[in-house]
Amino acid sequence: MTGKTNIMARCSIQAILSGLCALAALSGAAIAQPAAREGKDAFGNWQQDKPGITRLIRPQDLPDPGATPSSANVAHVVSQPAGAVPQVPPGFKIELFAEGLRAPRIIRVAPNGDIFVAETHGGRIRVLRAADGASKPATDEIFASGLKDPFGIAFFPAGDEPQWVYVANQDNVIRFPYHSGDLKAAGEPETIVASLPHGSGHLTRDIAFTPDNQRMLVSVGSGSNDAEGVGRPPGGLEAWSSAHPLGAAWGYETDRATVLAFDPDGKNEKIYATGIRNCVGLAVQPDGTPWCSTNERDGLGDDLVPDYVTRVREGAFYGWPWFYIGNHEDPRHIGERPDLKDKITVPDVLLQAHSASLGLAFYQGSNFPVEYRGDAFAAEHGSWNRSKRTGYKVVRIRLKDGVPTGEYQDFVTGFVVNDSEVWGRPVGVAVAHDGALLISEDANGTIWRVSH
Fold first, then answer.
1. Considering the entire predicted model, what is its pTM?
2. Whether 229 contacts 252, CB under 8 Å
3. What is the CATH number for 43?
């Protein structure tokens, strides 16, 4: 080979390598994680939803009350269209795990891997058993029936051999004796909390225990949208405030819009936190921090008030009904509680208003990529009080070193058919024994399994 040929060959190789490097750089740019949508760009509707889309909504991004009219836009539930499947990020797979259930809602996984499902409107708890990696349950049994709107489920004490299954009904907390592997309740339920606040309004009650087994937390939603007609507290505001926790409501809202705390045997009731309109999903982070997935109020426009997922601090007040997202005063309660204005805890992660955030679970499995470990997943049941539909998906709540960043990311989408029809409404999320994510939806009575 001549010197000229050698030079030409080296140049060709360099050109090829340069081209490959450039292509790699372009490919890397194409697959790089997109920046979070912020400000007005963080708002949108179901047509902009897609796995991987990240949003960051801050308190200063909120519009004024009434910036848009308050809409009634109830979704029409249809059967799953032929060929329609939920969408997941690249590298993930989603499969239909169970069907034919009666409005499955909260899902909890027992230490041995059995999957407990609350069929709230059916008044029962179902148990599904599947081998690790299986796409269908091999066993399907009714654990308990004849319950009153069961929702929250918890195993106690923590560890591989719990002795009880606790169930939070609409109006009480009960527990069943339990041995690992029980598919049917071994005895009659024992009433632990005889009476929870109930009646009108939000009826779901979730339940969780702190990792030290010392406290039982129970979420209780408000009896109304915005404490309409609650009036003045008995004995006057000053007397009420001095005798009750910060921000505690009165009248038909007494002990509602709260997280309550008890001993595991149901004694020593106290209010743990107030002003949380409807903490539907209650979960405890591995470090012992309680979290709420919360439905905020309606009637103030398309983008008010944001739903949220947040750490719940003992003794904190989160605003409802007088304020929202910090010291934003609700226009329906102007001037009623100036004493609370600078005492409001701002939620950690703001979600698009009217998403109806429900079930919540922290990912501690090993099936997903390592960057998912420690993050949370929340089910967005979907809007009715928004002109352009939102929700109807599962989102990933981003944490860094156990602390929320404020960002959330679309993880499972595709349940909306068009502007008026949907075929899926996610409710419960849970991490299966094999690290897959289980998602219940109560529109068509199915459970889906997401694996990597």
1. 0.92
2. no
3. 2.120.10.30
